[in-house]
Amino acid sequence: MQLNAADTAFMLIATALVLIMTPGLAFFYGGLVGRKNVLTIVMQSFISLGVSTVLWVTVGFSLCFGRDIGGVIGNPFDFLLMTGIAAGDIYPGLEIPVYLFATYQLMFAIITPALITGAFADRMTFKAYLTFLVGWQLVVYYPFVHMVWGGGWLAENVGVLDFAGGIVVHAIAGMAALATVFFLGERRASEVEPHNIPFVALGTALLWFGWFGFNAGSALAVNEISVLAFINTQIGGAFAGVTWMILDWKLQRKPTLVGFCVGAVAGLATITPAAGFVTPQSAMLIGILAGSIPYTAILFRQRKNWDDALDVWAVHGIGGVVGILSLGLLATKGMNPDGADGLFYGNGSFFVTQLVGVVVAIGWAFIVTYVLLWAINKITPVRVSHEAEHSGLDDALHGETAYVHAD
User: Fold this and answer.
1) Predicted pLDDT of residue 262
2) Which CATH superfamily is domain 5-395 in?
3) In the 8-state DSSP scheme, what is residue 277?
4) What's the pLDDT band for 406 if we cut at 50, 70, 90?
5) Which of 186, 246, 264, 266 lies 20 to 30 Å (CA to CA) from residue 290?
């Protein structure tokens, strides 16, 4: 394979687009939390830009895309410290440099653990978060990248498809989020309403903009599949946002900006695994499902009094599961010959395959995350003190405040 200039330029842009999603997430989450904790959750996203990069270039890329070991993980020595790669090396099966492929995949590694932070907002110590950030990638994220995208068991032996991260990003992050909620328990502080809705809108805009790189870029080339993923991304986000707003209007009596923004993010998450495998008409249906099923999951979570602060489990966990199972129903080789036909196209076995992937993701992410938190808590307290939670984590943990006159 030789380098394709158009594909390389496209993937450079897509990589930058996915990078901007993490600051977008910081604004999105930062607007949803209280005034005393905004810098803490923003920092949790930004620090992943640094720590996850260090981990990825030392061992992460090799664990994800090195030679297969037991179907679960890659050889840690194949690309240790990014060695054994020349600037002109082309990634097998593609027409882009290995360095570019590695950097694009790095952007997914950065944002995935940052997604989880919305669930335990206002409650986790920074030292515990740093430990969690490293440990969770090693024992949850990297194995799933390898199993689904790196030639591992779920893709090669089971036949699971995941275009851009329904399992690899959203489902495992959402289920890990639920584990953190159960481990940490409820918040004690009273600041539970969004403190800056324009921040939420800005974050949504950056996330939506970046999501075109997230999904269309997952074609890893400029072709009809990248275009298909591009339009399906827009459809999924828009249909879900409108559906969410309608439900808010009907049930809460008023349409809200926060509701539309959260619904749009749910739609973008849900269309992600199917974006390059389904028709635009199917993307419309997936968008409606994304605007209604995660909405219902939030109502269920509220009845159960699970304190998932920013509804990561419902939006990303349930959204990712809905997307993966929808792919099992609606995938068609008529749109992507490298994909599969789903149940609605005469292939019921593919739906079962996707169901297996979902079950493995839910079980692994939840159980391993809970055990990881238990282990971290033996080393350093995971939950902040009563005093820190009352005064706000920004000042207590970082000695900074977002607003000079914050109470």
Assistant:
1) 98
2) Ammonium transporter AmtB like domains (1.10.3430.10)
3) T
4) very low
5) 186
Angle, CA of 368, 370 and 374, to the nearest 5°: 115
Cβ 262 vs Cβ 315: under 8 Å: yes
pLDDT at 102 over 70: yes
CB atoms within 10 A of CB 101: 20
Q: Is 379 exposed, middle or buried (0-12, 13-18, 19+ CB in 10 A)?
A: exposed
Angle (CA) 289 291 294, round 5°: 85
| Number of other CB atoms surrounding residue 86 within 10 Å | 9
Strands annotated E in 11-166: 68-69, 73-74
- Using DSSP's 3-state secondary structure scheme, residue 25 falls into helix
Angstrom distances, CA of residue 216 to CA of 102, 172, 233, 277, 319: 17, 21, 8, 12, 19
Please answer whether residues 347 and 341 qualify as being in contact, where contact means their C-beta atoms are separated by less than 8 angstroms. yes
Tokens coding 107: 């952007």
Residue extents of the structural domains in the chain:
5-395
Contact between residue 115 and residue 314 where contact means Cβ atoms under 8 Å apart: no
- Residue 192 predicted with pLDDT over 80: no
Q: How far is CA 156 from CA 138, 160, 197, in A?
A: 21, 8, 44
The answer to whether 14 touches 107, Cβ cutoff 8 Å, is no
Residue 15 one-letter amino acid: T
The amino acid at 56: W
Predicted confidence band of residue 1 (pLDDT cuts 50, 70, 90): confident
